[in-house]
Amino acid sequence: MFSVTILGNNSALPAYNRHPTAQMVHLNEQNILLDCGEGTQMRMLEFKVKRNNLNYIFISHLHGDHYLGLAGLINTLNLTGRSEPLNLFAPPPLEEILRLQFANGNTKLNFDLRFFPLPEEAGPLVETSTFRVSTFLTEHRVTCHGFLIEEIKKPRSIVPEKTQEFGIPFDYYPALQNGADYISEDGELIIPNEILTEEAPLPKSYAYCADSRFTTSFLPYIENADTIYHETTYLDDLREKAESRYHSTTKQAATIATLAHAKQLLIGHFSSMYDDLTPFQLEAASVFPNSIRTQEGETYNI
Amino acid sequence: MFSVTILGNNSALPAYNRHPTAQMVHLNEQNILLDCGEGTQMRMLEFKVKRNNLNYIFISHLHGDHYLGLAGLINTLNLTGRSEPLNLFAPPPLEEILRLQFANGNTKLNFDLRFFPLPEEAGPLVETSTFRVSTFLTEHRVTCHGFLIEEIKKPRSIVPEKTQEFGIPFDYYPALQNGADYISEDGELIIPNEILTEEAPLPKSYAYCADSRFTTSFLPYIENADTIYHETTYLDDLREKAESRYHSTTKQAATIATLAHAKQLLIGHFSSMYDDLTPFQLEAASVFPNSIRTQEGETYNI
Fold it and tell me: Which candidate in A65, A112, A226, A276 is catalytic?
Protein backbone atom coordinates (compact mmCIF):
# COMPACT_ATOMS: atom_id res chain seq x y z
CA MET A 1 0.00 0.00 0.00
CA PHE A 2 1.24 3.45 -0.89
CA SER A 3 -1.31 6.21 -0.49
CA VAL A 4 -1.83 9.68 0.94
CA THR A 5 -4.76 10.96 2.99
CA ILE A 6 -5.36 14.70 2.85
CA LEU A 7 -5.98 16.15 6.32
CA GLY A 8 -5.83 19.81 5.35
CA ASN A 9 -5.62 21.44 1.92
CA ASN A 10 -6.16 25.14 2.51
CA SER A 11 -3.63 27.93 2.71
CA ALA A 12 -2.95 29.97 5.83
CA LEU A 13 -6.48 31.17 6.58
CA PRO A 14 -8.95 28.40 7.43
CA ALA A 15 -12.10 28.86 5.34
CA TYR A 16 -15.11 26.96 3.96
CA ASN A 17 -14.37 24.10 6.32
CA ARG A 18 -10.95 23.71 4.76
CA HIS A 19 -7.95 23.58 7.06
CA PRO A 20 -4.21 24.23 7.06
CA THR A 21 -1.83 21.78 5.46
CA ALA A 22 -1.36 18.21 6.68
CA GLN A 23 -1.13 14.89 4.85
CA MET A 24 -0.71 11.35 6.08
CA VAL A 25 1.24 9.02 3.83
CA HIS A 26 0.74 5.29 4.29
CA LEU A 27 3.60 3.24 2.90
CA ASN A 28 3.17 -0.40 3.87
CA GLU A 29 3.67 -0.36 7.66
CA GLN A 30 4.97 3.20 7.72
CA ASN A 31 2.75 6.16 8.58
CA ILE A 32 4.34 9.42 7.63
CA LEU A 33 2.86 12.83 8.44
CA LEU A 34 3.77 15.64 6.08
CA ASP A 35 3.25 19.00 7.78
CA CYS A 36 0.92 19.51 10.69
CA GLY A 37 -1.17 22.67 10.56
CA GLU A 38 -3.37 23.78 13.46
CA GLY A 39 -6.14 21.27 14.10
CA THR A 40 -4.45 18.28 12.45
CA GLN A 41 -5.26 16.07 15.44
CA MET A 42 -8.95 17.04 15.13
CA ARG A 43 -8.91 16.15 11.42
CA MET A 44 -7.40 12.77 12.32
CA LEU A 45 -10.31 12.15 14.66
CA GLU A 46 -12.82 13.32 12.08
CA PHE A 47 -11.40 11.18 9.28
CA LYS A 48 -10.54 8.21 11.50
CA VAL A 49 -6.86 8.40 10.64
CA LYS A 50 -5.02 6.63 13.43
CA ARG A 51 -2.48 8.82 15.17
CA ASN A 52 -0.88 6.18 17.33
CA ASN A 53 0.94 4.27 14.64
CA LEU A 54 2.65 7.38 13.35
CA ASN A 55 6.33 6.72 12.60
CA TYR A 56 7.66 9.88 11.01
CA ILE A 57 6.76 13.55 10.86
CA PHE A 58 8.29 15.90 8.30
CA ILE A 59 7.72 19.66 8.59
CA SER A 60 8.38 21.61 5.41
CA HIS A 61 8.84 25.09 6.86
CA LEU A 62 8.03 27.31 9.80
CA HIS A 63 4.97 29.15 8.59
CA GLY A 64 2.30 28.56 11.18
CA ASP A 65 -0.15 26.88 8.84
CA HIS A 66 2.35 24.04 8.38
CA TYR A 67 3.30 23.24 11.97
CA LEU A 68 1.06 24.86 14.61
CA GLY A 69 -0.80 21.59 15.19
CA LEU A 70 2.37 19.76 16.12
CA ALA A 71 2.67 20.59 19.84
CA GLY A 72 -0.97 19.63 20.38
CA LEU A 73 -0.60 16.37 18.50
CA ILE A 74 2.52 15.44 20.49
CA ASN A 75 0.73 16.32 23.75
CA THR A 76 -2.12 14.07 22.74
CA LEU A 77 0.17 11.18 21.78
CA ASN A 78 1.79 11.57 25.19
CA LEU A 79 -1.51 11.66 27.08
CA THR A 80 -2.78 8.59 25.25
CA GLY A 81 0.16 6.46 26.27
CA ARG A 82 2.52 6.38 23.32
CA SER A 83 5.79 4.69 24.17
CA GLU A 84 7.35 4.11 20.74
CA PRO A 85 9.92 6.61 19.48
CA LEU A 86 8.72 9.24 17.02
CA ASN A 87 11.02 10.69 14.38
CA LEU A 88 10.56 14.38 13.65
CA PHE A 89 12.39 16.06 10.79
CA ALA A 90 11.94 19.82 10.82
CA PRO A 91 13.71 23.14 10.40
CA PRO A 92 16.18 23.50 13.29
CA PRO A 93 14.46 26.33 15.23
CA LEU A 94 11.42 24.16 15.86
CA GLU A 95 13.39 22.17 18.42
CA GLU A 96 13.70 25.17 20.74
CA ILE A 97 10.06 26.19 20.22
CA LEU A 98 8.87 22.73 21.25
CA ARG A 99 11.35 22.59 24.11
CA LEU A 100 9.99 25.86 25.53
CA GLN A 101 6.41 24.69 25.10
CA PHE A 102 6.96 21.39 26.89
CA ALA A 103 9.20 22.86 29.60
CA ASN A 104 6.70 25.59 30.48
CA GLY A 105 3.79 23.17 30.46
CA ASN A 106 5.82 20.94 32.78
CA THR A 107 5.28 18.22 30.19
CA LYS A 108 7.52 15.18 30.36
CA LEU A 109 7.26 13.08 27.24
CA ASN A 110 6.93 9.37 27.92
CA PHE A 111 8.28 8.49 24.51
CA ASP A 112 11.42 9.36 22.65
CA LEU A 113 10.79 12.33 20.36
CA ARG A 114 13.78 12.22 18.06
CA PHE A 115 14.38 15.60 16.51
CA PHE A 116 16.34 15.67 13.27
CA PRO A 117 17.14 19.19 12.05
CA LEU A 118 16.64 19.48 8.30
CA PRO A 119 19.78 20.45 6.35
CA GLU A 120 19.66 23.47 4.03
CA GLU A 121 20.43 21.33 1.02
CA ALA A 122 18.96 18.42 -0.87
CA GLY A 123 19.78 14.89 0.22
CA PRO A 124 18.52 11.68 1.79
CA LEU A 125 16.98 11.79 5.27
CA VAL A 126 15.80 8.24 5.92
CA GLU A 127 16.74 5.05 4.14
CA THR A 128 15.58 1.58 5.09
CA SER A 129 15.42 -1.66 3.13
CA THR A 130 11.96 -0.73 1.88
CA PHE A 131 11.76 3.04 1.47
CA ARG A 132 13.72 6.25 1.30
CA VAL A 133 12.78 9.85 2.15
CA SER A 134 14.86 12.67 0.71
CA THR A 135 14.50 16.39 0.90
CA PHE A 136 14.96 19.16 -1.64
CA LEU A 137 14.52 22.90 -1.36
CA THR A 138 11.57 24.77 -2.83
CA GLU A 139 11.51 28.53 -3.31
CA HIS A 140 9.46 30.20 -0.63
CA ARG A 141 9.53 33.27 1.62
CA VAL A 142 11.38 31.26 4.26
CA THR A 143 13.53 28.15 3.82
CA CYS A 144 11.11 25.46 2.71
CA HIS A 145 11.65 21.76 2.17
CA GLY A 146 9.98 19.42 -0.26
CA PHE A 147 10.07 15.70 0.42
CA LEU A 148 10.40 12.74 -1.92
CA ILE A 149 9.18 9.42 -0.59
CA GLU A 150 10.31 6.42 -2.62
CA GLU A 151 9.79 2.73 -2.35
CA ILE A 152 13.05 0.83 -2.67
CA LYS A 153 13.06 -1.59 -5.57
CA LYS A 154 12.34 -5.03 -4.19
CA PRO A 155 14.47 -8.04 -5.21
CA ARG A 156 13.10 -10.33 -7.96
CA SER A 157 10.62 -12.87 -6.62
CA ILE A 158 11.12 -16.64 -6.89
CA VAL A 159 8.70 -18.62 -9.08
CA PRO A 160 8.25 -21.69 -6.81
CA GLU A 161 6.93 -24.02 -9.51
CA LYS A 162 10.09 -23.45 -11.54
CA THR A 163 12.63 -23.72 -8.70
CA GLN A 164 10.93 -26.98 -7.65
CA GLU A 165 10.87 -28.26 -11.23
CA PHE A 166 14.61 -27.76 -11.58
CA GLY A 167 15.38 -28.73 -7.98
CA ILE A 168 17.19 -25.51 -7.13
CA PRO A 169 18.66 -25.63 -3.57
CA PHE A 170 17.21 -23.09 -1.11
CA ASP A 171 20.55 -21.47 -0.38
CA TYR A 172 20.68 -20.38 -4.00
CA TYR A 173 17.53 -18.25 -3.68
CA PRO A 174 19.16 -14.97 -2.55
CA ALA A 175 21.44 -15.02 -5.60
CA LEU A 176 18.45 -15.70 -7.85
CA GLN A 177 16.55 -12.80 -6.29
CA ASN A 178 19.50 -10.58 -7.10
CA GLY A 179 19.35 -11.62 -10.73
CA ALA A 180 21.95 -14.43 -11.02
CA ASP A 181 21.41 -17.36 -13.40
CA TYR A 182 21.45 -20.83 -11.84
CA ILE A 183 24.55 -22.89 -12.53
CA SER A 184 24.71 -26.35 -11.03
CA GLU A 185 27.82 -27.30 -9.06
CA ASP A 186 29.18 -29.44 -11.88
CA GLY A 187 28.54 -26.61 -14.31
CA GLU A 188 26.34 -28.86 -16.47
CA LEU A 189 22.96 -27.20 -15.83
CA ILE A 190 22.49 -23.54 -16.59
CA ILE A 191 19.05 -21.97 -16.14
CA PRO A 192 18.56 -18.30 -17.00
CA ASN A 193 17.32 -16.15 -14.15
CA GLU A 194 14.22 -14.98 -16.05
CA ILE A 195 12.82 -18.50 -15.92
CA LEU A 196 13.24 -18.87 -12.16
CA THR A 197 12.22 -15.39 -10.97
CA GLU A 198 9.89 -12.54 -11.75
CA GLU A 199 10.53 -8.85 -11.71
CA ALA A 200 9.19 -7.21 -8.52
CA PRO A 201 6.57 -4.53 -9.04
CA LEU A 202 8.17 -1.24 -9.97
CA PRO A 203 8.83 0.93 -6.93
CA LYS A 204 6.70 4.05 -6.72
CA SER A 205 7.41 7.49 -5.45
CA TYR A 206 5.58 10.54 -4.10
CA ALA A 207 6.97 14.05 -4.31
CA TYR A 208 5.53 16.57 -1.84
CA CYS A 209 6.44 20.01 -3.11
CA ALA A 210 5.18 21.97 -0.07
CA ASP A 211 4.96 25.76 -0.58
CA SER A 212 6.81 27.23 -3.52
CA ARG A 213 6.68 29.80 -6.23
CA PHE A 214 7.00 28.40 -9.73
CA THR A 215 10.52 27.14 -10.27
CA THR A 216 12.18 24.34 -12.16
CA SER A 217 15.06 24.36 -9.69
CA PHE A 218 13.91 21.23 -7.86
CA LEU A 219 12.78 19.34 -10.98
CA PRO A 220 15.85 17.05 -10.94
CA TYR A 221 14.77 15.73 -7.53
CA ILE A 222 11.19 14.92 -8.46
CA GLU A 223 11.66 13.72 -12.02
CA ASN A 224 9.63 10.60 -12.80
CA ALA A 225 7.87 10.63 -9.44
CA ASP A 226 4.62 8.71 -9.89
CA THR A 227 2.56 11.24 -7.98
CA ILE A 228 3.43 14.84 -7.33
CA TYR A 229 1.69 17.09 -4.84
CA HIS A 230 2.20 20.73 -5.78
CA GLU A 231 0.62 23.73 -4.12
CA THR A 232 -1.83 25.84 -6.11
CA THR A 233 -2.72 28.77 -3.90
CA TYR A 234 -4.23 30.72 -6.78
CA LEU A 235 -5.95 30.34 -10.11
CA ASP A 236 -3.80 31.19 -13.07
CA ASP A 237 -5.01 34.77 -13.55
CA LEU A 238 -3.19 35.68 -10.34
CA ARG A 239 0.30 34.70 -11.51
CA GLU A 240 1.79 38.00 -10.39
CA LYS A 241 0.27 37.80 -6.95
CA ALA A 242 1.46 34.20 -6.69
CA GLU A 243 5.00 35.15 -7.67
CA SER A 244 5.14 38.05 -5.21
CA ARG A 245 3.94 35.83 -2.37
CA TYR A 246 6.13 32.87 -3.30
CA HIS A 247 3.15 30.72 -4.20
CA SER A 248 2.02 28.98 -7.38
CA THR A 249 -1.00 28.80 -9.66
CA THR A 250 -2.90 25.86 -11.12
CA LYS A 251 -1.16 25.93 -14.50
CA GLN A 252 2.24 26.37 -12.91
CA ALA A 253 1.73 23.28 -10.76
CA ALA A 254 0.51 21.36 -13.79
CA THR A 255 3.55 22.50 -15.76
CA ILE A 256 5.84 21.08 -13.08
CA ALA A 257 3.97 17.75 -13.24
CA THR A 258 4.35 17.74 -17.02
CA LEU A 259 8.06 18.57 -16.97
CA ALA A 260 8.67 15.94 -14.28
CA HIS A 261 6.85 13.25 -16.33
CA ALA A 262 4.61 12.48 -13.37
CA LYS A 263 1.69 10.13 -13.73
CA GLN A 264 -0.61 11.99 -11.34
CA LEU A 265 -0.78 15.48 -9.85
CA LEU A 266 -2.47 16.33 -6.56
CA ILE A 267 -3.17 19.99 -5.92
CA GLY A 268 -3.96 21.83 -2.67
CA HIS A 269 -3.10 24.83 -0.45
CA PHE A 270 -6.04 26.74 -1.88
CA SER A 271 -6.41 30.41 -0.97
CA SER A 272 -9.31 31.32 1.30
CA MET A 273 -10.32 33.74 -1.49
CA TYR A 274 -12.00 30.80 -3.20
CA ASP A 275 -15.17 29.02 -2.14
CA ASP A 276 -15.85 26.99 -5.31
CA LEU A 277 -12.75 25.01 -6.29
CA THR A 278 -14.03 23.63 -9.60
CA PRO A 279 -11.91 26.07 -11.64
CA PHE A 280 -8.78 24.68 -9.94
CA GLN A 281 -9.56 21.24 -11.30
CA LEU A 282 -10.30 22.55 -14.78
CA GLU A 283 -7.29 24.82 -15.09
CA ALA A 284 -4.80 22.24 -13.83
CA ALA A 285 -6.25 19.50 -16.05
CA SER A 286 -6.07 21.76 -19.11
CA VAL A 287 -2.26 21.54 -18.79
CA PHE A 288 -1.82 18.15 -17.11
CA PRO A 289 -4.86 15.92 -17.64
CA ASN A 290 -4.39 13.66 -14.63
CA SER A 291 -4.67 16.50 -12.14
CA ILE A 292 -6.70 15.93 -9.00
CA ARG A 293 -8.11 18.71 -6.90
CA THR A 294 -7.73 17.13 -3.46
CA GLN A 295 -10.47 16.95 -0.86
CA GLU A 296 -9.90 16.74 2.86
CA GLY A 297 -10.58 13.28 4.20
CA GLU A 298 -9.93 11.61 0.84
CA THR A 299 -7.19 9.05 0.26
CA TYR A 300 -5.33 8.92 -3.04
CA ASN A 301 -3.25 6.01 -4.27
CA ILE A 302 0.26 6.93 -5.31
CA MET B 1 -24.46 43.45 27.36
CA PHE B 2 -22.38 41.10 29.46
CA SER B 3 -22.20 37.53 28.19
CA VAL B 4 -19.83 34.70 27.45
CA THR B 5 -19.73 32.46 24.38
CA ILE B 6 -18.16 29.05 24.87
CA LEU B 7 -15.73 28.20 22.06
CA GLY B 8 -14.24 25.10 23.64
CA ASN B 9 -15.23 23.20 26.77
CA ASN B 10 -13.22 20.00 26.71
CA SER B 11 -10.07 19.12 28.56
CA ALA B 12 -6.74 18.41 26.91
CA LEU B 13 -7.81 15.67 24.49
CA PRO B 14 -10.29 16.77 21.84
CA ALA B 15 -13.19 14.30 21.73
CA TYR B 16 -16.85 13.96 20.69
CA ASN B 17 -16.56 17.17 18.71
CA ARG B 18 -15.59 19.04 21.88
CA HIS B 19 -12.49 21.20 21.77
CA PRO B 20 -9.86 22.66 24.08
CA THR B 21 -10.67 25.64 26.26
CA ALA B 22 -11.59 29.07 24.89
CA GLN B 23 -14.31 31.55 25.80
CA MET B 24 -15.24 34.93 24.38
CA VAL B 25 -16.62 37.46 26.84
CA HIS B 26 -18.67 40.34 25.45
CA LEU B 27 -18.85 43.29 27.82
CA ASN B 28 -20.48 46.24 26.07
CA GLU B 29 -17.95 47.20 23.40
CA GLN B 30 -15.21 44.99 24.80
CA ASN B 31 -14.47 41.54 23.41
CA ILE B 32 -12.32 39.53 25.72
CA LEU B 33 -10.90 36.12 24.90
CA LEU B 34 -10.21 33.83 27.84
CA ASP B 35 -7.73 31.12 26.85
CA CYS B 36 -7.16 30.02 23.28
CA GLY B 37 -6.83 26.27 22.78
CA GLU B 38 -5.88 24.74 19.44
CA GLY B 39 -8.52 25.43 16.82
CA THR B 40 -10.07 28.47 18.53
CA GLN B 41 -10.02 30.43 15.27
CA MET B 42 -11.91 27.60 13.55
CA ARG B 43 -14.54 27.63 16.34
CA MET B 44 -14.91 31.39 15.84
CA LEU B 45 -15.65 30.80 12.16
CA GLU B 46 -18.06 27.98 12.97
CA PHE B 47 -19.97 29.94 15.60
CA LYS B 48 -19.76 33.28 13.78
CA VAL B 49 -17.91 34.94 16.63
CA LYS B 50 -16.10 37.93 15.15
CA ARG B 51 -12.38 37.83 15.70
CA ASN B 52 -11.56 41.27 14.39
CA ASN B 53 -13.04 43.30 17.21
CA LEU B 54 -11.10 41.41 19.84
CA ASN B 55 -9.65 43.79 22.45
CA TYR B 56 -8.05 41.60 25.09
CA ILE B 57 -6.73 38.07 25.41
CA PHE B 58 -6.02 36.48 28.77
CA ILE B 59 -4.18 33.15 28.94
CA SER B 60 -4.57 31.29 32.22
CA HIS B 61 -1.58 28.95 32.02
CA LEU B 62 0.83 27.28 29.66
CA HIS B 63 -0.74 23.88 29.19
CA GLY B 64 -1.18 23.43 25.47
CA ASP B 65 -4.94 23.03 25.56
CA HIS B 66 -5.22 26.61 26.83
CA TYR B 67 -2.96 28.49 24.40
CA LEU B 68 -1.92 26.47 21.33
CA GLY B 69 -4.47 28.27 19.15
CA LEU B 70 -2.98 31.66 19.90
CA ALA B 71 -0.19 31.86 17.32
CA GLY B 72 -2.59 30.79 14.56
CA LEU B 73 -5.22 33.31 15.63
CA ILE B 74 -2.66 36.12 15.71
CA ASN B 75 -1.38 35.09 12.26
CA THR B 76 -4.91 35.19 10.95
CA LEU B 77 -5.64 38.61 12.48
CA ASN B 78 -2.47 39.83 10.81
CA LEU B 79 -3.32 38.35 7.41
CA THR B 80 -6.82 39.82 7.52
CA GLY B 81 -5.57 43.37 8.01
CA ARG B 82 -5.89 44.10 11.70
CA SER B 83 -4.32 47.42 12.61
CA GLU B 84 -5.68 48.08 16.11
CA PRO B 85 -3.50 47.15 19.09
CA LEU B 86 -4.26 43.87 20.85
CA ASN B 87 -3.62 43.40 24.55
CA LEU B 88 -2.34 39.99 25.58
CA PHE B 89 -1.99 39.04 29.23
CA ALA B 90 -0.22 35.73 29.69
CA PRO B 91 2.40 33.86 31.69
CA PRO B 92 5.79 35.46 30.93
CA PRO B 93 7.39 32.58 28.95
CA LEU B 94 4.74 32.86 26.25
CA GLU B 95 6.36 36.06 24.99
CA GLU B 96 9.51 34.21 23.94
CA ILE B 97 7.55 31.31 22.43
CA LEU B 98 5.56 33.71 20.24
CA ARG B 99 8.67 35.73 19.40
CA LEU B 100 10.43 32.60 18.13
CA GLN B 101 7.37 31.53 16.14
CA PHE B 102 6.97 34.89 14.41
CA ALA B 103 10.72 35.42 13.86
CA ASN B 104 11.17 32.00 12.25
CA GLY B 105 8.09 32.43 10.10
CA ASN B 106 9.47 35.81 9.00
CA THR B 107 6.17 37.25 10.20
CA LYS B 108 5.99 40.99 10.77
CA LEU B 109 2.88 41.94 12.67
CA ASN B 110 1.09 44.94 11.23
CA PHE B 111 -0.55 45.71 14.53
CA ASP B 112 0.73 46.33 18.02
CA LEU B 113 0.61 43.10 20.03
CA ARG B 114 1.04 44.36 23.56
CA PHE B 115 2.32 41.60 25.78
CA PHE B 116 1.65 41.97 29.51
CA PRO B 117 3.33 39.28 31.63
CA LEU B 118 0.99 38.03 34.35
CA PRO B 119 2.29 38.53 37.89
CA GLU B 120 2.49 35.55 40.26
CA GLU B 121 0.03 37.14 42.67
CA ALA B 122 -3.52 38.36 42.72
CA GLY B 123 -4.27 41.90 41.65
CA PRO B 124 -5.84 44.19 39.05
CA LEU B 125 -4.71 43.93 35.42
CA VAL B 126 -6.95 46.34 33.54
CA GLU B 127 -9.13 49.12 34.86
CA THR B 128 -11.14 51.51 32.73
CA SER B 129 -14.14 53.71 33.55
CA THR B 130 -16.48 50.84 32.69
CA PHE B 131 -14.81 47.57 33.65
CA ARG B 132 -11.98 45.95 35.55
CA VAL B 133 -10.13 42.67 35.05
CA SER B 134 -8.19 41.19 37.97
CA THR B 135 -6.30 37.97 38.33
CA PHE B 136 -6.01 35.46 41.13
CA LEU B 137 -4.11 32.19 41.40
CA THR B 138 -5.75 28.80 41.18
CA GLU B 139 -4.04 25.58 42.27
CA HIS B 140 -2.82 23.63 39.28
CA ARG B 141 0.17 21.58 38.14
CA VAL B 142 1.77 24.75 36.76
CA THR B 143 1.14 28.37 37.75
CA CYS B 144 -2.42 29.06 36.70
CA HIS B 145 -4.41 32.28 36.72
CA GLY B 146 -8.09 32.83 37.19
CA PHE B 147 -9.65 36.06 35.99
CA LEU B 148 -12.40 38.22 37.45
CA ILE B 149 -14.15 40.55 35.02
CA GLU B 150 -16.26 43.23 36.71
CA GLU B 151 -18.40 46.03 35.44
CA ILE B 152 -17.63 49.29 37.22
CA LYS B 153 -20.62 50.76 38.99
CA LYS B 154 -22.05 53.45 36.76
CA PRO B 155 -22.95 56.90 38.16
CA ARG B 156 -26.63 57.55 38.95
CA SER B 157 -28.63 58.56 35.89
CA ILE B 158 -30.46 61.87 35.54
CA VAL B 159 -34.28 61.79 35.37
CA PRO B 160 -34.78 64.50 32.68
CA GLU B 161 -38.44 65.22 33.48
CA LYS B 162 -37.50 66.09 37.03
CA THR B 163 -34.41 68.20 36.29
CA GLN B 164 -36.49 70.17 33.78
CA GLU B 165 -39.39 70.53 36.20
CA PHE B 166 -37.10 72.08 38.82
CA GLY B 167 -34.97 74.00 36.31
CA ILE B 168 -31.66 72.42 37.40
CA PRO B 169 -28.69 73.97 35.52
CA PHE B 170 -26.73 71.55 33.31
CA ASP B 171 -23.45 72.19 35.08
CA TYR B 172 -25.00 70.68 38.20
CA TYR B 173 -25.55 67.27 36.53
CA PRO B 174 -22.19 65.65 37.33
CA ALA B 175 -22.69 66.38 41.05
CA LEU B 176 -26.20 64.90 40.87
CA GLN B 177 -24.86 61.77 39.16
CA ASN B 178 -22.42 61.39 42.01
CA GLY B 179 -25.27 61.51 44.52
CA ALA B 180 -25.38 65.17 45.67
CA ASP B 181 -28.69 66.84 46.53
CA TYR B 182 -29.56 70.00 44.61
CA ILE B 183 -29.22 73.24 46.54
CA SER B 184 -30.06 76.44 44.69
CA GLU B 185 -27.52 79.29 44.80
CA ASP B 186 -29.52 81.25 47.36
CA GLY B 187 -29.88 78.11 49.46
CA GLU B 188 -33.69 78.37 49.36
CA LEU B 189 -34.44 75.31 47.21
CA ILE B 190 -33.23 71.91 48.29
CA ILE B 191 -34.19 68.85 46.24
CA PRO B 192 -33.05 65.44 47.40
CA ASN B 193 -30.92 63.52 44.94
CA GLU B 194 -33.30 60.54 44.83
CA ILE B 195 -35.93 62.69 43.12
CA LEU B 196 -33.59 63.90 40.38
CA THR B 197 -31.65 60.70 39.64
CA GLU B 198 -32.01 56.98 39.50
CA GLU B 199 -29.66 54.28 40.67
CA ALA B 200 -27.68 52.73 37.82
CA PRO B 201 -28.13 48.99 37.29
CA LEU B 202 -25.97 46.98 39.65
CA PRO B 203 -22.61 46.09 38.11
CA LYS B 204 -22.13 42.44 37.35
CA SER B 205 -19.10 40.22 37.44
CA TYR B 206 -17.80 37.00 35.92
CA ALA B 207 -15.18 34.82 37.58
CA TYR B 208 -13.26 32.46 35.29
CA CYS B 209 -11.59 29.88 37.49
CA ALA B 210 -9.53 28.20 34.74
CA ASP B 211 -7.93 24.88 35.75
CA SER B 212 -7.73 24.08 39.44
CA ARG B 213 -8.00 21.36 41.98
CA PHE B 214 -10.60 22.00 44.67
CA THR B 215 -9.45 24.82 46.92
CA THR B 216 -11.04 27.66 48.84
CA SER B 217 -7.84 29.67 48.56
CA PHE B 218 -9.15 31.97 45.85
CA LEU B 219 -12.67 32.30 47.28
CA PRO B 220 -12.02 35.85 48.58
CA TYR B 221 -11.40 37.02 45.01
CA ILE B 222 -14.55 35.58 43.49
CA GLU B 223 -17.00 36.11 46.34
CA ASN B 224 -20.36 37.43 45.15
CA ALA B 225 -19.46 37.12 41.48
CA ASP B 226 -22.73 36.86 39.56
CA THR B 227 -21.52 34.05 37.35
CA ILE B 228 -18.67 31.69 38.05
CA TYR B 229 -17.06 29.38 35.53
CA HIS B 230 -15.35 26.49 37.26
CA GLU B 231 -13.73 23.50 35.62
CA THR B 232 -15.25 20.06 36.16
CA THR B 233 -12.92 17.63 34.48
CA TYR B 234 -14.47 14.63 36.26
CA LEU B 235 -17.66 13.38 37.79
CA ASP B 236 -17.62 13.27 41.56
CA ASP B 237 -16.71 9.59 41.92
CA LEU B 238 -13.24 10.44 40.61
CA ARG B 239 -12.31 12.89 43.39
CA GLU B 240 -8.99 11.20 44.02
CA LYS B 241 -8.02 11.22 40.38
CA ALA B 242 -9.08 14.87 40.17
CA GLU B 243 -6.99 15.79 43.19
CA SER B 244 -3.91 13.97 41.90
CA ARG B 245 -4.18 15.71 38.53
CA TYR B 246 -4.97 19.14 39.97
CA HIS B 247 -8.47 19.11 38.52
CA SER B 248 -11.97 19.32 40.02
CA THR B 249 -15.20 17.40 40.03
CA THR B 250 -18.80 18.51 39.49
CA LYS B 251 -19.67 18.73 43.18
CA GLN B 252 -16.44 20.49 44.01
CA ALA B 253 -17.16 23.17 41.42
CA ALA B 254 -20.70 23.50 42.72
CA THR B 255 -19.39 23.82 46.27
CA ILE B 256 -17.20 26.73 45.21
CA ALA B 257 -20.21 28.44 43.59
CA THR B 258 -22.19 27.92 46.80
CA LEU B 259 -19.47 29.23 49.07
CA ALA B 260 -18.94 32.25 46.80
CA HIS B 261 -22.69 33.06 46.84
CA ALA B 262 -22.73 33.08 43.04
CA LYS B 263 -26.01 33.36 41.15
CA GLN B 264 -25.00 31.04 38.30
CA LEU B 265 -22.35 28.39 37.71
CA LEU B 266 -21.01 27.44 34.29
CA ILE B 267 -19.09 24.18 34.08
CA GLY B 268 -16.69 22.89 31.44
CA HIS B 269 -13.26 21.32 30.77
CA PHE B 270 -14.84 17.88 30.56
CA SER B 271 -12.57 14.87 30.33
CA SER B 272 -12.51 13.00 27.04
CA MET B 273 -13.47 9.91 29.11
CA TYR B 274 -17.08 11.09 28.92
CA ASP B 275 -19.33 11.08 25.88
CA ASP B 276 -22.68 11.75 27.58
CA LEU B 277 -22.43 14.85 29.77
CA THR B 278 -25.88 14.66 31.38
CA PRO B 279 -24.47 13.38 34.70
CA PHE B 280 -22.33 16.52 34.91
CA GLN B 281 -25.46 18.67 34.85
CA LEU B 282 -27.22 16.51 37.44
CA GLU B 283 -24.35 16.23 39.87
CA ALA B 284 -23.49 19.93 39.83
CA ALA B 285 -27.13 20.96 40.20
CA SER B 286 -27.57 18.60 43.15
CA VAL B 287 -25.23 20.89 45.08
CA PHE B 288 -25.78 24.25 43.35
CA PRO B 289 -29.14 24.33 41.56
CA ASN B 290 -28.33 27.02 39.01
CA SER B 291 -25.50 25.02 37.44
CA ILE B 292 -25.23 25.00 33.66
CA ARG B 293 -23.36 22.39 31.74
CA THR B 294 -21.98 24.55 28.94
CA GLN B 295 -22.22 23.72 25.26
CA GLU B 296 -19.82 24.93 22.62
CA GLY B 297 -21.30 27.68 20.48
CA GLU B 298 -23.78 28.73 23.18
CA THR B 299 -23.82 32.19 24.75
CA TYR B 300 -24.68 32.65 28.42
CA ASN B 301 -25.70 35.91 30.02
CA ILE B 302 -23.68 36.84 33.07
Answer: A65
